[in-house]
Specification:
The protein is built from four helices and eleven strands, in the order E-E-E-E-E-E-E-H-E-H-E-H-E-H-E. By secondary structure, it is of the alpha/beta class. The protein has two domains: 91 residues, Beta Barrel (Elongation Factor Tu (Ef-tu), domain 3); 117 residues, Rossmann fold, CATH 3.40.50.
Length: 229
């Protein structure tokens, strides 16, 4: 069951924002972990009574060669959980797969529009950093229920000198659809669209983006239970 998986221990856990935590993973021997690119994610497997696995974004700003840090939504029985998170507590043993890095298209003639929600902000911040390092034009829209629940807000704000970064708080369904539609129109067919967040949020972005760009230019960074995506 655990072929090609690496055994790790949860060594630390701390709050990132209201309802969100950072979780640090290390091997028992504190050996060096595989490197990864900005925007990468990793699948975590808990092997207890029931086999459980979820995919989480890796936090470049706090991960180190001997420790990964992932962003998770607090498991609180909330029916609106975007990733159906499993409980991760200090001292727990788990397994991880090799990190996966999203493909980022670097072309000076191409514009990118990025959308994030929840812990998806970690992945989108990583992609924006890769675009910024390559001198690419991008626009980023981050959505949260409130400023207190905005994950990685400082990391996203640090990118304002490289591209356009907008935060949207407390929007109901209708206003969310209006805001994402406005951000996407008009977009050139070659524009690259990146999104990560709750499944319904990404489905909305994908549906709206198909009116403007080629389907192959829509990139969804799927977190949580990938089997249900």
């Amino acid at each position: 069951m655990h072929d090609n998986l690496l055994s790790v221990i949860i060594t630390r856990k701390w709050q990132l924002a209201e309802s969100y935590h950072a979780v640090e993973l290390q091997t028992e021997s504190r050996s060096e972990l595989p490197s990864f690119d900005h925007g990468a994610c990793v699948t975590v497997v808990l092997d207890n009574a029931i086999y459980k696995e979820r995919t989480y974004p890796l936090c470049c700003s706090t991960s180190r060669p001997r420790a990964y840090v992932i962003a998770v939504r607090q498991a609180a029985g909330d029916s609106d959980t975007e990733t159906a998170d499993i409980s991760l507590s200090q001292g727990d043993e788990a397994f991880i797969a090799m990190p996966r890095s999203p493909e980022v298209f670097l072309d000076g003639r191409t514009r990118s529009i990025l959308f994030s929600g929840g812990v998806g902000a970690a992945s989108i911040a990583g992609i924006a950093n890769r675009l910024a390092s390559a001198g690419q034009i991008f626009e980023l829209h981050n959505f949260a229920r409130s400023p207190e629940r905005a994950v990685f807000r400082e990391e996203l704000d640090a990118l304002k000198s490289e591209g356009r970064v907008y935060h949207h708080f407390g929007l109901d369904t209708d206003l969310l659809e209006q805001q994402t539609s406005h951000a996407l129109s008009p977009a050139h067919a070659n524009t690259q669209i990146y999104c990560s967040g709750p499944p319904a949020f990404m489905d909305l972005i994908e549906r709206q983006a198909r009116d403007w760009v080629y389907p192959a230019n829509i990139h969804k960074i799927v977190l949580g239970d990938r089997k249900n995506s």
